């Protein structure tokens, strides 16, 4: 299905892809897999709505605030080493979550789990960019995107099955199996580490400013749901976080060794691609968060049934995403990133027919099918366009920035759900959410059409400011052997 035979991959490439998919899937899955388990957690551990909210948002807070730092660590200390730290930490913290004896212990364990999760995503995707090149890189990113994006949609199935058939604690214990299984393969990749750049160092001041700034803003959006914008516990962290982030930008512009080089945003596909990511992933998180709640609280489906109801989108994504990545690698990402979000918008608009009594086949399934096709068309070209615009040596921080944008956009989208639906989920609230979600996807499509450029547009390649227009290409297997002519299907520079 990828357009490139599986035998074309070397053993090392297969191992890298396996490690990257498993590590990132775990981090993305735990962003939302616990949602359907919250009532069961509340019944067993107590603590009411506040504890339930922080079980989800404690993880998102540390994940979103630290992912930039993790990207910098990945480029400084090596992708394999940082991945190993993350996997070991994720295993330990998952065990702590599953053994939690009260609500407060679970919240603390979830926050620590977010720290470990932040170490997984940038390193895994940077490892793919380092090892794969040309069309093979597009296919690999397509497979990575399919599984990691599918984790967001598949989470309700796993969460629902665990709650209805076993116990909510199984959700966390299941993380231990893939984490332990992938460690032996990771140990065999030590030879892939890039040399640390001479004179490089960790941007400690930037790290502190990023954590405090992002943490303040994320905390404010979390508390807004229960306290409102006028509460000092909301607007004070929001204002402080915004001020600290402004200081972070100034610091990054002046320091000789920034953790987030601002010049990356001057690269057209990187800057515009992250704008598109904001709209697309904000829409994805908002739409599925409200739809999942509607299917349970209004339509009356059990947790497992609601999870399986959302499964068609995941299956379509898994089937088509690698092929879309291969096609985009040959044709360029621009029109894939335009057409895909438009299809996603059309799929959600089809959900305007949803009403009571619920007719799943007639009201929900058509929209999910169209949305699934649109998501498959979108995710791999989006990731390829952004990471293909940066040098492989900076793939860790490039991936971290993009994933931080996606996670924070999703958090803001979920935080805004109450403003759109009202205090209680209703059919009209779902329809309002569907309309807003579709509008955000359209914004993502227009942003891509205007800003993204394909390779060799008008006979030239977009260049990086302050860099040579092109660097010597790597061989087809990701090594340093030159080959004649330009690399077909590479993402814009």
Keywords for this entry:
493 residues, disordered C terminus, 73% helix, disordered N terminus, mainly alpha, 18 helices
Mean pLDDT: 77
| Beta-strand share of residues | under 5%
Count, helices: 18
Structural class: mainly alpha
What is the helix content?
over 70%
The rounded Rg comes to: 21 Å
Oligomer: single chain
Shape: globular
End-to-end CA span: 27 Å
Number of distinct beta strands:
0
- Extract low-pLDDT stretches: 1-7, 457-493
**Main pleated-sheet profile:** none
Tell me the series of helices and strands, N- to C-terminal.
HHHHHHHHHHHHHHHHHH
What does this structure look like?
- The two termini are 27 Å apart.
- This protein has helices at 11-32, 38-45, 48-77, 79-98, 103-131, 134-165, 170-173, 176-187, 204-227, 232-254, 268-298, 303-309, 311-331, 334-349, 360-387, 395-415, 417-421, 427-451.
- Helix 1 (11-32) packs antiparallel against helix 5 (103-131), helix 5 (103-131) runs antiparallel to helix 6 (134-165) and helix 14 (334-349) packs antiparallel against helix 15.
- With 493 residues, it is mainly alpha-helical.
